[in-house]
Amino acid sequence: MEEKTYVEDIDRSIYDIKDVEDDDFRMEEGLTPDIIKKLSEEKDDPEWMREFRLESLKIYNELEVPDWGPSIEGLDMNHIATYVRPKSNMENTWENVPQDIKDTFERLGIPQAERKSLAGVGAQYDSELVYHNVKDEVAEQGVVYTDMESAMKGEYADMVKEYFMKLVPPRDHKFAALHGAVWSGGSFVYVPKNTELSIPLQSYFRLNAKGAGQFEHTLIIVDEGASLHFIEGCSAPKYNVANLHAGCVELYVKKNAKLRYSTIENWSKNMYNLNTKRAIVEEGGSVEWVSGSFGSHVGYLYPMSVLKGDNSRMEFTGVTFAGNGQNLDTGAKVVHIGKNTSSYMNTRSISKSGGISTFRSSVVVKKSATGTKSAVSCESLMLDSDSRSDTIPAMDIRTKDADVGHEAKIGSISDDAVFYLMSRGMSEEDARALIVSGFADNVSKELPLEYALEMNNLIRLEMKGSIG
Amino acid sequence: MTNINILPDNENVYNEHNGSDVLTVNAMPSKTWHWLSVNEARIKWDSNSEEKYADELIVISENNKEEIWIDDITTQNEYNSKKVKIEAKENSEVTIVSNHDIKNNLRAFMDINLSKNAKVKLVQLLSSADKALYNEVKVSCDEKSSFELVQAFMGKKQGDTGYSGKIYSNVIVNLDKDNSEFKYDMGYLGQGDNLLDYNLVVNHFGKNTNCEINVNGALKDKSQKTFRGTIDFKKGSSGSVGAENETVLMLGDDVVNKTVPVILCSEEEVSGTHGASIGELDEETLFYFESRGIDKEKAENIMARASVERLVGLIENANEKEIIEKTLQEVLGDD
Which of A395, A414, A418 best probes binding to B when mutated, by most B CB atoms within 10 angstroms? Predict the structure, then answer.
């Protein structure tokens, strides 16, 4: 019988270090109107937000759990703490962040990255931001980068009220409703007209508390002619109980504006990642999504782009790596509404050691979207026969004046390619790792160098194993 | 900032029969978002008044070669159903041509069993003026057997009713044993208010099994089409290959096309591909026609007919070819 490369699970030692839980406040577990009221009180919400939360809870109770994706039976909302406040106020100098939290982010390389290559950084620990800072020269350009709570109460209160969960209404799906009810933390970004940020902003989300949920809200408005690159990173240590991440990202890309949104998601493998991301793009604007999904036990993640304005465009570049115990259902959605809009999705999925990866997409071209061009390309790699890889794309085209293409491929690593590399002196393990890294280069070449290196390291670690 | 409607326009087409008298058909093995309305189709149907015709069994003996014509199923009642079972024994070879040009609502079922080394070619012409047709074909394939399916779906004009027929087709092919294969060629032409709703599932169970799927069609006027095509590589189907290709020519301002090409895979050593191309006549083809003095409208009509007429080239038998050409001529007219 042919012997196979045995592929070990990822070495997650950096991510798996658990800090002792020393919360300032931990909400009792479960979801009731009383808990929501208490949460609203803790957060000192304005009245409209308190009502919004309670209405969202009502919708949450009305909506069904999705029956088309991975099972979320292991997630018991009665045992998830929806709000855990760390013992720290939000700081804008790194020295003032409590030592244990600081150590965690130091290990993850966040402050180093800020010094080297970022225009601003936000770091969320459990339910609240513990650190937020933006470089002076960026702030001088009028760029606003702050936590959602401050934005909701400060001079941007009206803007937040106008845009908050308008793009992802609570009725969108059950976990959007949940988010509307219990959200806390997250970032608010406003880039004024014709302002170009040449270096990225970054938020990093860390969920340390056991059996807790993280529900941060990211609201970004890139005004006319402006441009922004926003990077998001996520991780958590592994516990033997379920943790939940049901964040929400709403991106408003105005006329002729540009936004690139990059994510490297590396949640621990007890995490249910039920995140919702959506962008609306006005005339001549563009949104680019770069997405790497490596962590989580179960993931539902499909960033959606609504191309509302004429000549608007979107691009989605993604890689998903599902290992042992993981069921990652990822992909993207696009709705073409404006004329002469274009979309391009380019994804890679890798499954190994019993992992399940599903690429799911939808391309909707409305009757108004004449002159649409859309192309989807998805490739899947099966590293063994214990794993599973599915491709479920859907297209709904309602104008004849459209050019829509789709291609998909599924297969395994070519023995010839491995043999070729081995004949050049590589071990089988290195050869396979190199092929997989090359397979995922659609994403790594779109990331800033530091992140591309991190992603390649993740892949290398995932592929590291012994030859059986 | 007002709420944005991200749903497809007029998203009620597939949910128009939400009453109690509804058949749910053409369910995909793997569901996706409900708001796309592609997971299954629903047909208004009165099962109580359905007339069931006697089941028919056709057996092709070992080593025999046959040709069988299944003519129009006479549809007397408003609702009818008919089941045909075909047993192709070892080393047999058969071509079956069935023509469902329905006058009343019909559910047609065909179960086909292919024994070792059997070869079956099924040619189906499905057309409807203003009635609903549900056509189901279920196939199981033994070792080294080969099943070929050629299907043409056409709307048809009848008096003043125009083109309002609804055709639902559900094909499930199980490549149960090693080295079995399936080839599928489908062509359709939707016109007027035609609704064409197809579901194809190919399950690869055996090793070194092969499937090739080619779907070509054109949509005119207000016609609507959904094609769900699933290639499912089951665990143990190593060495198998599946390829699916769809081309849709969009010719009307109010047409709706839905395509869901799915690959499910639980086996490492397989190769699966699918491709889809949806849009108007491309510039190169148009230029070719124009350089020969054929205008855009005429060129579009030629290409629309070609989606279905190309299937004639897949029929070897001259007699069958002639009958099929005549049927196509009747349905497609002279345009």
Answer: A395
> Is the pLDDT reported for residue A126 higher than 80?
no
**Which residues neighbour A369 within 8 Å (Cβ) at sequence distance 6 or greater?**
A307, A336, A337, A338, A339, A341, A399, A402
CA pair distance A18, B220, nearest whole angstrom: 62
Q: Which amino acid is at A29?
A: E
> Quick one: pLDDT at residue A102?
66
State whether residue A380 sits within 8 Å of chain B by CB: yes
Q: What are the CA-CA distances from residue A365 to residues A27, B36, B178, B253 (Å)?
A: 44, 12, 41, 13
Residues paired with residue A420 on neighbouring β-strands, in sequence order: none
The string of DSSP codes covering A191-215 is E-TT-B-SS-EEEEEE--STTBEE-
Taking a C-beta distance cutoff of 8 angstroms, is the pair A33, A58 a contact? no
Question: What are B40's two structure tokens?
Answer: 């299954």
Residues 1-20 of B with CB under 8 A from A: 1-4, 6, 8-9
Looking up tokens 């339910």 gives A127
User: Is some CB atom of chain B closer than 8 A to the CB atom of A117?
Assistant: no
- pLDDT tens for each residue of B294-309: 988 888 888 888 888 8
CA distance A248 to A233: 14
For residue B95, the Cα-to-chain-centroid distance in whole angstroms is 18
Q: What are the CA-CA distances from residue A180 to residues A49, A177, A188, A248, A340 (Å)?
A: 9, 5, 16, 9, 34
Of A438, A468, A432, which Cα lies nearest the Cα of A456? A438
pTM assigned to the model: 0.90
d(C-alpha A363, C-alpha B8), whole Å: 10
Cβ within 8 Å of residue A150, ≥6 positions away: A90, A188
From the number of C-beta atoms within 10 Å of its C-beta (0-12, 13-18, 19+), residue A104 rates as: buried
B158-204 pLDDT, tens digit per residue, is 666 678 889 999 999 999 999 999 999 999 989 889 999 999 999 99
What is the average per-residue pLDDT within A446-461?
A: 71
The overall average pLDDT reported for chain B is 88
DSSP bridge partners of B168 = B134, B197
State the sign of the Cα–Cα–Cα–Cα dihedral A130, A134, A139, A140.
positive
Residue A287 has, within 13 A of its CA and on its CB side, a CA count of: 32
The more confidently predicted of residues A131 and B230 is B230
Helix (H, G, I), strand (E, B) or coil at A62: helix
Window 43-82 of A: residues touching B by CB (8 A cutoff) are 67-68
- Identify all chain B residues contacting A360, using CB atoms and an 8 Å cutoff: 32
Q: What 3-state class would DSSP assign to A34? A: helix
A166 contacts A279 by C-beta, under 8 angstroms: no
Query: Residue A287 carries which DSSP code?
Result: E
Query: Whose CA is closest to B36, among A398, A167, A349, A281?
Result: A398
Taking the CA of residue A365 and the nearest CA in chain B, the distance in Å comes to 8
* pLDDT at A401 > cutoff 50: yes
Local confidence band at A7 (pLDDT 50, 70, 90 cut-offs): very low
By Cβ distance, the residue of A391, A396, A412 closest to B258 is A396
Kindly state the tokens that stand for A404.
Answer: 């829509």
What does the domain layout of chain B look like in residue ranges? Answer: 2-284
Q: Which pLDDT belongs to residue A87? A: 62
Can you tell me the ipTM of this complex? 0.91
State the average pLDDT over residues A192-202. 89
pLDDT surpasses 70 at A20 = no
